[in-house]
Inverse folding.
């Protein structure tokens, strides 16, 4: 079983392993000539990011070319060109977008020449441009502020890309997208979901984003890890001015339309509120800046069905709840659940430090704590499902919550080595914790039917949720070393990461039973307890068919038999480890990525990019070797048990003793075979505090 888990894990990782950071900066390049179109060497160029006072310096090469790499996005920038004997040329109002290589060519005039005009270059990003590296869409902060968004979701903006269809791009499934924020992976890299965060919530606040880039087919070796779309976002940063904002967004039934021509549509009650605050500014002017955003979502979705409009009777369910408390010491929760909750708390924080004219350090932190509440699973459900619906009303213990939490840290160091060389280093750690929890504690899932093979109620631990968790720890590094040699810009680098996963999933681990009616369940419990009281707590030899239901106040049609042909479930199925530990699957993977690229500027209108990238995964976890099979009657602590035995005709001798939380479950030492199609399986457990519970299962 454990080997199967690991094999499945390997397959998932082979599909979803290629997740890499993307480019999170912009660049600027061009050529400086004199009035006779001759290239000028040694021209001093200074680019100043006005909001923060960050300055970048370079000089022109022998062919008159220059390049600024790893610039902050946004602006405005002021770019000054100076040379002895020539007028200083200045270009203002320049704004850079994510991943852009802005072309800015300048003609220098001797200082004896009069200037006819001053050219001011504004924000320009032509569709047909030699600096583009493939089909893409850029969503700036200005666009995000102006465009409507119903769900306050990044999805509302990325669908502006013509190649999008929902979350799919270019005809490729959303599972093959790569979502990053400041280079940090915001994917579910195990492959269980399309993004981070609980369903119905966002992993990061829209208010924290400065720009979003959607790439479809980029030809830049620094971008990788997707065959659908690369959705690359960069967060806001502080500046020399303080900025603060407080906001609330809300949705309610009163804000929804309910009429279509002459038709009136019913609107259910719900509540959806989002509250947030942002603050940014300088700690040291022109030197150290901060940005922080905090946001929380509070959502409530109504449940339309209760005992008031369902076939399930409130008196019967209350009696069942009292019975569970009195006889088994178990609280199944309430049965008229009228709403489900979804919550999310998010923090985005960032520090930017201009260490000196050659080094800029940026530190980022992202926090998410989120969950959404789910109705009982429909997996393996009886007819008409487990509800809540017009047929069945479950207890709250069978509901479950999916929790998606993370803490992510990133650090970037941007270094200008000299006029020809620069380096961009990024390191990060992501701690992702996804798990399910429920109010039912550790208790078998029990489905009770209405006597006609239809669902009536459910209580206990949801069959797929006990210890259902995924822990992901990801360490990543990216380094880009750039060299400018006239018309050639050489990039060599690495994007590598190490991932450790711990996944837990064991369906029906606490057990799962179906009873034909409430009375069948009660009869089974009372008869078993009576037998145990008369046999010093032992269930050895117990057979529910030897008890008369009338002795317990039930009709003759009550059998107490579970998972029988009358319920539609003719076998008892459970998978669990014969060891003392839960069967977690653990796997570690190292991904090595190396690349090199030559961006050749053939002319002002033509760039030729040649590159090679290699990404190789190394699986660091050895699969366990499965031990030889043993006869089923022999003890084997590494064996997984899967009982599906409607035609079993031999005596089984199984022993399982384990302690989990406050519950001790035992499989009795004998399974009595009545005939070739009926197997008696006795299982009982005892809650350490304060009562006992007993089940007799016959198929």
């Amino acid at each position: 079983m454990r080997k199967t888990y690991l094999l499945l894990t390997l397959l998932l990782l082979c599909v979803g392993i290629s997740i890499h950071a993307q480019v999170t900066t912009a660049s600027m390049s061009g050529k400086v000539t004199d009035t006779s179109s001759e290239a000028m060497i040694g021209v001093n160029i200074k680019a100043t990011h006005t909001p923060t006072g960050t300055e970048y310096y370079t000089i022109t090469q022998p062919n008159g070319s220059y390049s600024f790499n790893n610039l902050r996005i946004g602006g405005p920038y002021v770019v000054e060109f100076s040379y002895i004997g020539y007028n200083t040329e200045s270009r203002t109002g320049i704004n850079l977008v994510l991943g852009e290589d802005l072309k800015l060519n300048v003609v220098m005039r001797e200082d004896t020449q009069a200037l006819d005009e001053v050219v001011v270059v504004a924000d320009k990003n032509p569709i047909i441009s030699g600096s583009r590296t493939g089909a893409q869409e850029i969503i700036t902060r200005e666009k995000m502020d102006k465009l409507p968004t119903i769900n306050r979701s990044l999805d509302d903006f990325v669908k502006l890309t013509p190649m999008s269809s929902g979350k799919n791009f270019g005809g490729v499934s959303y599972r093959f997208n790569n979502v990053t924020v400041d280079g940090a992976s915001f994917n579910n890299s195990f492959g269980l979901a399309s993004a981070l965060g609980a369903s119905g919530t966002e992993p990061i606040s829209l208010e924290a984003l400065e720009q979003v880039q959607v790439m479809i087919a980029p030809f830049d070796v620094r971008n990788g890890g997707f065959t659908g779309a690369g959705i690359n976002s960069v967060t806001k940063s502080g500046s020399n001015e303080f900025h603060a904002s407080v906001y609330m967004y809300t949705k309610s039934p009163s804000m929804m339309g309910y009429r279509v021509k002459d038709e009136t549509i019913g609107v259910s009650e719900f509540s959806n509120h989002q509250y947030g605050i942002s603050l940014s500014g300088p700690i040291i002017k022109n030197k150290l800046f901060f940005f922080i955003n905090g946001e929380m979502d509070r959502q409530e979705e109504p449940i339309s069905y209760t005992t008031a409009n369902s076939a399930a009777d409130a008196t019967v369910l209350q009696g069942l709840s009292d019975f569970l408390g009195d006889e088994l010491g178990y609280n199944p929760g309430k049965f008229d659940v009228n709403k489900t909750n979804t919550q999310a708390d998010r923090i985005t924080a960032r520090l930017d430090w201009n260490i000196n004219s050659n080094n800029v350090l940026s530190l980022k932190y992202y926090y998410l704590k989120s969950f959404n509440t789910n109705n009982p699973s429909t997996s393996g459900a009886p007819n008409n499902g487990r509800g809540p619906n017009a047929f069945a009303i479950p207890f709250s213990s069978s509901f479950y919550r999916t929790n998606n939490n993370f803490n992510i840290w990133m650090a970037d160091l941007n270094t200008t080595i000299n006029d020809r060389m620069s380096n961009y280093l990024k390191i990060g750690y992501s701690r992702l914790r996804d798990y399910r929890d429920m109010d039912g504690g550790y208790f078998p899932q029990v489905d009770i039917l209405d006597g006609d093979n239809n669902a009536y109620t459910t209580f206990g631990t949801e069959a797929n949720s006990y210890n259902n968790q995924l822990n992901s720890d990801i360490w990543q590094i990216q380094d880009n070393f750039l060299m400018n040699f006239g018309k050639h810009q050489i990039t060599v680098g690495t994007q590598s990461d190490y991932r450790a996963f711990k996944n837990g999933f064991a369906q029906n681990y606490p057990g799962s039973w179906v009873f034909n009616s409430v009375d069948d369940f009660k009869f089974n419990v009372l008869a078993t307890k009576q037998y145990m009281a008369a046999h010093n707590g032992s269930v050895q030899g117990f057979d529910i068919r030897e008890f008369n239901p009338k002795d317990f106040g039930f009709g003759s049609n009550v059998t107490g038999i579970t998972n029988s042909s009358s319920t539609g479930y003719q076998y008892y199925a459970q998978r669990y480890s014969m060891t003392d530990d839960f069967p977690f699957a653990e796997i570690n993977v190292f991904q090595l990525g190396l690349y090199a690229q030559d961006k050749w500027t053939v002319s002002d209108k033509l760039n030729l990019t040649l590159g090679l990238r290699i990404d190789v995964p190394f699986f660091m976890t050895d699969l366990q070797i499965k031990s030889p099979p043993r006869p089923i009657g022999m003890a084997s602590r590494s064996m997984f048990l899967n009982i599906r035995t409607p035609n079993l005709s031999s005596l089984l001798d199984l022993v399982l003793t384990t302690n989990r939380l406050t519950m001790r479950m035992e499989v009795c030492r004998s399974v009595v075979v009545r005939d070739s199609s009926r197997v008696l399986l006795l299982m009982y457990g005892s809650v350490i505090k304060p009562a006992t519970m007993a089940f007799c299962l016959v198929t």
Q: What stands out?
A: The longest strand covers residues 585-603. The radius of gyration is 33 Å. Helices lie at 2-16, 141-146, 155-158, 314-328, 518-534.
